Amino acid sequence: MNTILLVDDDDYVLDGLLRHIPWQEIGVQIIGTAGDGEEGLRKFRELRPDIVITDIYMPELDGFQLTEAIHALDENVPIVILSGYDDFANARRAMSSGIRHFLLKPPSLEEIEFVVREVVQHLGESRERDELLASYKGQQELVRKTMRDSFFRDLLQVRYRPEELPAQRIAFMGLPERLTVQALTLSLVRSSGAAGRDEREWQLLRFGTGNIVRELLATRLEPQPGVTALVLEYTDTDFVVLFLREAEEEGAATFVKELGEELVHHILKYMKLSVLAGLGSQHEGYHRLIDSYLESLHALEQAEMNGWNRVYEFGDRTTEAGAEKEKEKEKEKEKEKGGDVSMEAIRSLHDAIFQRQWPQVAEQWKRLAGELSRGGLPLPVLKGVCSGIASAIWTASSLEGAKDGREETEISLETWLLRLSRCGSAPMLLEWMDEAMAAMLGRIQEELLGKKSHALVDRVIREFIEKSYDQEMTLEQIAASLHVNRNYLSQLFKRVTGEPFVTYFNKYRIRKAKELIRTGKYMVYEISEMVGFRNSTYFSQVFKSITGYSPSEFER
């Protein structure tokens, strides 16, 4: 196991490093600490640590003098420098001294862990490389799981055309290009007895129900190759089970119906909760999932009128031709009530949230709330739409906060969803959403306005991004031309702007591209080259990921 010596004249910093960094998990051991450079040199001679982490400004010997003395004894010992926020000159000096790792004070735990792991790798620890790889795979799978959940929630709320589906995102999530989809909605009946229980007891019942559903599905689907199920806890009472098949198989519909009946039976038997269950039809393609889900809600209406604790299929009481007629009627009603417009508004709002364009989020929500207030959506569907919006904005703002190191938002997602579920009418629901959205967006706006500028980042933006956006350029090249450590500049740029360099750079290029498109003078491939993209296809992909439109669509 590799050893580390910590050198800093601030006892608070040393205590924080000792207490809060999981050194054992990283694969290193703290062999000693020192309060100044001279003591640090003495302990280095005595203990011979593999790695040294040191502050710059200290009595007796500063960090650079200590580094020179250590390298005079052993030039291969890696040194990690801790520096104040504005130490541009120190960053340049560290680079010229051969110091590869430069952390800004106060460094986050993630930054320290990353740098130490990187140092250990350079020391040739194969075991550490394996741990890093395993950690990366675990994080990647967690990202995939979160993306899958968000993706399928979106498909329940927004009607996409096949060509609008995110093919690259689908591939990254490990999903097949095409699927046969079917939705089963399970709505727990919160009877008078259940309503008398306190909220904590109800949430425990709901949690237990979710476990029963997932365990039974895992057991029954294991011998069924090519069939998976995803369980979405959609509202405080509703679970939506999505059955996904890579190909439509004979007898699959019967199997799903029987499995649904078994789920209802287990919930009633073990949780003593009655269930309304509606099963939509099978459809081919991700874009048809919304059809199956709406059909399951239609089947739920049959359950409410005819009885609990059995699965009602869409079209149970009609012929196949009658079912198609019902679909057409539903579509006509949706058009009359502005349903299509609302779906477009929902899509625009989610796009703005995903891109963290907070002023547009406020505008899009105001537009959507106006449409929803005119009626047209059943209360359960309206709760589903609002829950999806709440989850999206909370997730986006939380991820942004994690990057900036700020505290958790005041409005927790659990509180938000719980209050939504308790709203008994559409006006009450929309009033609460207005208040919650205003509070969340106000907090985000305050934090964005509170970000500090920095002379070095301003220089990168003015002298490189704004003047040379039409050229191929990397942050490493910029750092070299400024004679500053690349890691230092990367951390500083993200802290000041709130975005990684590449994201900021591409957004600036696309902003210039939009200006050129509006002139109507150039072809797309010409604009691509004028803003620094040598590949027009890649330019179109970046353009759409940032604006939501292809260059040709934006032009129209």
Automatic annotation (TrEMBL):
Keyword hit for Phosphoprotein: yes
GO biological process: phosphorelay signal transduction system
Stretches assigned to the Response regulatory domain: 3-120
Domain HTH araC/xylS-type: 459-556
Region (Disordered): 319-340
Domain of life: Bacteria
Residue ranges with Basic and acidic residues bias: 319-339
Keyword field: DNA-binding, Phosphoprotein, Transcription, Transcription regulation
InterPro entries in UniProt: CdaR_GGDEF, CheY-like_superfamily, Homeodomain-like_sf, HTH_AraC, HTH_AraC-typ_CS, Sig_transdc_resp-reg_receiver, Tscrpt_reg_AraC-type_HTH
CDD domains for the chain: REC_YesN-like
Pfam families attached to this UniProt entry: GGDEF_2 (PF17853), HTH_18 (PF12833), Response_reg (PF00072)
4-aspartylphosphate: modified positions: D55
Ranges in coiled-coil conformation: none
Gene Ontology MF, one: DNA-binding transcription factor activity
Name of the protein in its database record: Response regulator
Organism: Cohnella fermenti
